[in-house]
Specification:
The protein is of the alpha/beta class. The strands form four sheets. Strands 1, 2, 3, 4, 5, 6, 7, 8 and 9 form a nine-stranded parallel sheet that branches.
Length: about 800
C-alpha cells in the first residue's frame, strides 16, 4: 500500500506558521524549515499564504514588463519512444517490447512519422515540439539497441539530437528536449538542437528511491543525486532548463521543502547577469492511473497541492515562472492555483494528446484563454524558452538556433510573435516550413497508396481529389498500409486512449401533449423522469433529436430541454439537429439565431451534427429528399457553432454516392471547421438496409469498406476534427475493434435504454455497457476512459 500523499502528517504550530508567513511577507529568504512549515498552512493561514504568493507573482510579472500575463506554449507532443530502463510505479507512458508488438507500435518513431505530426502542428500554429521519451532504453532492452544500431545511432540521445535538428531545419519549429538524465557531453550535443531542455527533479527523497516497494525503487535514473547533478550541469552549460516537483507520490512535506530549496540553490549557483538557468519550476500533482502499482492510491490532496504551488513561489521568488499543468486539475480549481502564485500553464497542444497523462485531455485553447481572463489575467503564448532567455539569446541560446528563435519571437517582449488572428486554434502564417517541400513531394516515386498515405499523414491538404479517391478505393495489402498509416496518425496525435460517453437517447419526435398507448411516445412529465433515471444510472449526456410531430406545439423543443435540465441539472443536454432547429425557428416565427439563443436559454449545451447523409444535393435527392437541403444544413451547423454550440459531424455512406462525393463531403466539413472550430468529432456511419450497404469497390468485403472509410477520414481530417468515432451500433462490436486499429479513437455512447420509457430512444435495444467497452479496448492494449460530450474528463458527481 502506497501512502496517500505524505509519509508523515503536515503539522506545524500556529505560531511557527505565523512566523514563517511574516518572514515571507517581509521578502526574507526562506529555508527548508520555513518552507516545510508553510506547507502545513491551513484555514486562515493558507489564505494568507496564497495572498503573499499571489502578490509576489504579480510583482515579478510587473518587473518583467508583462503585468497580468499568464503564459503557455503551443506545442506538439512527440513520444519519440515509450521504451525505458526505469520502472516507476505510477507511469503509463512506458511500454515493454512485448506490448509494442501487441500494439503494432515501433520501438522508436521514425523521422518521417515525427515530421508528419510536426507539420500538422505547424499548421495548427504550434511553435514547440516536445520530445519526450523513456530513459536510455538501449541499456535495458535489446530491441532498442538493435533499432539504434540499424539506423546508425550510438544512443537514444544521439537520435533525439538528430530529430530535433531535422524538426527545426525542415519546419522552423523549436524542440524542447526532455530525454531524462543527461551527461555533460549529451547536454553539449543537444544544446545546438534545442533552445531549452528539461527533466523533473520530482523529489530529493532517497527513501522513495532506495526502499523496496516505493515509487522509484529499481529506477536508476530516479536517483535524486544523479538528477540534481543534471540540473547543475545544465547550469554550467547555460541551458534554459525546466524542472520541478511531483506532489503526492509518498514524499514528506520535508522532502517537498528540500526539493524546492535544492532547485533554487542550483539555479542561483549558475547566474549570469543575475539570471539563473532554471526557466520554470513545474509543481505537478500526482494523478493515479490504471494499470500501475499506484492505481489505488488517492490523487494528491487539492489544498496540499495548492500550498505546494504557493510555497514554490515563495521559495523561488518573483522572477521564476511557476508552472501548473492545466489538464491535471479541474477547471474549477484554476482559481486556487492562480491565487497561489502560478503564472504559466506550460505546454498545451491543439493537436496532440498528453501522452504521459492520456486520461487527462488538454483544455481547448479558447477555453483556457477564457478561463484565464475570468481570473483577471491575459493568456499569452511564449516559446519553449521563456521570454527572459529569448531576450538574452547571446548568453542562453546556441548560435545555431538564434535565427530560428528570432523568427518566432516578438523582439520586444521575448514572447511568441502574435499572428494576425491569434485565437486558440488558428494556424500561424509566415513561419518557415508551412508545408512539405513541393520539390520533395514531386520527387517521390510513383504515387502508390503507401506514398500517398505518407504524404497525407504529413499534410492532408497535399493530395488532390483523385489521390484521395485512390486511397478510399485501396484493397488488399495497400489497404493494410493505409489503415496502419492512419492508425499511426491517430496514435501520435490524439493518443492511445479509446473513449466512451455514458448517455441515453431520446427521440423528440415521440413527444405528445397527452399520454398514448404507443411506447415510443412520451409526455413532458416523462421527460423529467427519463432524465432523472438516466442520471441515476450514471449517464452524463442526454441526446435528443428528431422533428416534432406537426400536431405538436414547436415550443415542445424548448420544453423538453427545460424539463430535462430541471430533473437532472448536471446532465449535459446534446440536442437538436440543424433540421430540428430550422423547424423550431420557422414554426415559432423566430430567426435561426433567435432559435439557437432560445435553445441555450432552455439548457441545451451542444448539438448533434446529424440530419445529413452526404453533402451533395444529388445524393440527398436520391436517398433522403425530406432531409434539410444541403445549403440549409451548412447554414444551420455554422450558425450553431457561431452561437457557441459545439457539434458532432457525420457521413452516411454506402448507397448512391461516389468516392469523389465522399471526399468532397470531408473537404467541406474541414472547411467549416477551419471557419468555426465547432466540430468535436466525425462519425463515418454505413447506411444499412435496402438503401445501403453498397460497396464502393465491387467485391470488397464490408469490413474493408469500413476500414478504408475510417482510415481516409482520419488522414483527411487530421489537424482539423480530432476524433474519429466508430459507430458500433452499425458495424458491430467485433468490427469496431478492428476499426479502432484503422484510425478510430472513440466508441460514441453507451446508449442506455433506461428504466423509464426505453422505447422512446432511437436505437433502443442496443446498449454498450461500460464494462463491455472496456473489455473491447483491453484487447488492443490501449487505455480506456470515460469522457464528457466534448471529450473532457468526467468529474465527480
Amino acid at each position: 500500500m502506497f501512502p496517500s500523499v505524505t509519509a508523515s502528517p503536515r503539522t506545524a504550530s500556529p505560531s511557527a506558521v505565523d512566523a514563517a508567513l511574516a518572514r515571507a511577507a517581509a521578502g526574507e529568504r526562506l529555508d527548508a524549515t520555513d518552507a516545510e512549515t508553510l506547507l502545513a498552512a491551513t484555514g486562515e493561514h493558507l489564505e494568507r499564504l496564497l495572498e503573499i504568493a499571489g502578490d509576489l507573482r504579480d510583482a515579478g510579472l510587473a518587473a518583467s514588463g508583462r503585468p497580468g500575463v499568464i503564459t503557455y506554449s503551443r506545442k506538439v507532443f512527440v513520444p519519440l519512444t515509450t521504451l525505458c530502463r526505469d520502472r516507476c510505479h505510477y507511469c503509463v507512458f512506458v511500454d515493454t517490447p512485448g506490448q509494442l508488438l501487441k500494439k503494432h507500435k515501433p520501438a522508436f518513431m521514425s523521422a518521417e512519422q515525427v515530421l508528419a505530426v510536426v507539420r500538422q502542428g505547424l499548421a495548427s500554429g504550434c511553435k514547440e515540439v516536445l520530445l519526450t521519451l523513456g530513459d536510455r532504453p538501449e541499456e535495458r532492452w535489446p530491441e532498442a539497441r538493435a533499432w539504434l544500431d540499424e539506423h546508425g545511432f550510438a544512443s537514444t540521445i544521439e537520435y533525439v539530437a538528430h530529430i530535433a535538428r531535422r524538426v527545426t531545419a525542415e519546419t522552423g519549429l523549436l524542440a524542447h528536449a526532455n530525454p531524462g538524465v543527461m551527461t555533460v557531453d549529451e547536454l553539449r550535443m543537444l544544446r545546438p538542437t534545442a533552445p531549452s531542455m528539461g527533466m523533473m527533479l520530482e523529489t530529493t527523497s532517497r527513501r522513495l528511491f532506495e526502499e523496496p516497494g516505493q515509487v522509484h525503487f529499481g529506477s536508476p535514473d530516479k536517483d535524486p543525486t544523479v538528477r540534481l547533478e543534471v540540473i547543475e550541469a545544465a547550469g554550467r552549460e547555460r541551458v534554459p532548463f525546466t524542472t520541478g516537483i511531483l506532489v503526492g507520490i509518498g514524499e514528506t512535506a520535508r522532502d517537498r521543502a528540500e526539493s524546492l530549496v535544492a532547485i533554487r540553490e542550483a539555479h542561483e549557483r549558475h547566474q549570469v547577469d543575475g539570471q539563473g538557468h532554471v526557466q520554470e519550476v513545474i509543481v505537478q500533482n500526482f494523478r493515479a492511473k490504471p494499470r500501475t502499482a499506484m492505481q489505488g492510491a488517492p490523487d494528491a490532496d487539492l489544498l496540499e497541492y495548492v500550498a505546494a504551488v504557493a510555497v514554490a513561489r515563495l521559495v523561488m521568488g518573483p522572477r521564476m515562472r511557476i508552472q501548473v499543468p492545466p489538464n491535471l486539475s479541474d477547471a474549477t480549481e484554476f482559481g486556487l492555483l492562480v491565487r497561489a502564485g502560478a503564472d504559466d500553464w506550460g505546454g498545451v497542444s491543439p493537436l496532440t494528446a498528453d501522452h504521459v497523462n492520456p486520461e487527462r485531455p488538454w483544455p481547448h485553447l479558447d477555453d483556457l484563454a477564457r478561463m484565464t481572463a475570468e481570473l483577471g489575467f491575459e493568456l499569452r503564448e511564449r516559446l519553449t524558452a521563456q521570454p527572459e532567455f529569448v531576450l538574452a539569446a547571446q548568453t542562453w541560446i546556441d548560435p545555431a538556433l538564434r535565427p530560428a528563435v528570432a523568427a518566432l519571437a516578438d523582439p520586444e517582449t521575448g514572447l511568441a510573435a502574435l499572428a494576425a488572428n491569434d485565437s486558440g486554434d488558428t494556424p500561424v502564417d509566415g513561419v518557415p516550413g508551412d508545408h512539405p517541400d513541393p520539390d520533395l513531394l514531386s520527387s517521390l516515386p510513383e504515387r502508390t497508396v503507401k506514398r500517398l498515405a505518407e504524404t497525407a499523414a504529413a499534410d492532408p491538404l497535399a493530395l488532390d481529389d483523385a489521390e484521395w479517391v485512390a486511397l478510399l478505393e485501396a484493397t488488399g495489402d495497400e489497404l493494410d498500409v493505409l489503415a496502419a498509416t492512419a492508425d499511426d496518425v491517430r496514435r501520435y496525435t490524439v493518443g492511445e486512449a479509446v473513449t466512451l460517453v455514458v448517455n441515453r437517447n431520446l427521440t423528440s419526435t415521440g413527444l405528445r401533449a397527452s399520454a398514448t398507448a404507443d411506447p415510443a411516445t412520451f409526455t413532458l412529465d416523462d421527460v423529467g423522469a427519463i432524465a432523472a433515471d438516466a442520471w441515476d444510472l450514471g449517464a452524463t449526456e442526454l441526446c435528443v433529436q428528431g422533428l416534432l410531430a406537426a400536431s405538436e406545439d414547436p415550443a415542445g423543443y424548448l420544453d423538453i430541454a427545460r424539463r430535462a435540465k430541471a430533473a437532472a441539472p448536471g446532465m449535459h443536454l446534446h440536442a437538436y439537429r440543424p433540421q430540428d432547429v430550422r423547424d423550431l425557428a420557422e414554426r415559432s416565427g423566430l430567426t435561426l439565431d433567435e432559435a439557437l439563443a432560445a435553445m441555450r436559454g432552455a439548457g441545451v449545451d451542444t448539438v448533434p451534427g446529424t440530419g445529413v447523409k452526404v453533402l451533395s444535393e444529388r445524393v440527398r435527392g436520391l436517398v433522403a429528399p425530406t432531409d434539410l437541403e444541403i445549403d440549409g444544413w451548412v447554414e444551420g451547423i455554422t450558425a450553431a457553432h457561431r452561437a457557441g454550440f459545439r457539434s458532432t459531424s457525420v457521413i452516411f455512406y454506402g448507397h448512391v454516392e461516389t468516392a469523389a462525393e465522399r471526399i468532397a463531403h470531408l473537404r467541406q466539413l474541414r472547411a467549416i471547421q477551419d471557419d468555426t472550430r465547432g466540430f468535436t468529432e466525425f462519425v463515418p456511419i454505413p447506411l444499412p438496409g435496402p438503401a445501403g450497404g453498397v460497396a464502393l469497390v465491387p467485391g470488397r468485403a464490408p469490413l474493408d469498406e469500413h476500414r478504408a472509410m475510417v482510415a481516409v477520414s482520419r488522414l483527411l481530417l487530421s489537424g482539423s476534427i480530432p476524433h474519429i468515432q466508430i459507430p458500433w451500433t452499425r458495424v458491430g462490436r467485433e468490427a469496431s475493434v478492428v476499426l479502432l486499429q484503422s484510425g478510430g479513437d472513440d466508441l460514441g455512447g453507451t446508449l442506455l435504454d433506461g428504466r423509464v420509457k426505453p422505447e422512446a430512444g432511437i436505437e433502443h435495444g442496443l446498449e454498450l455497457p461500460v464494462r463491455d467497452a472496456s473489455a473491447m479496448v483491453s484487447r488492443l492494449f490501449r487505455p480506456f476512459r470515460l469522457r464528457t460530450t466534448t471529450y473532457g474528463q468526467v468529474g465527480p458527481r
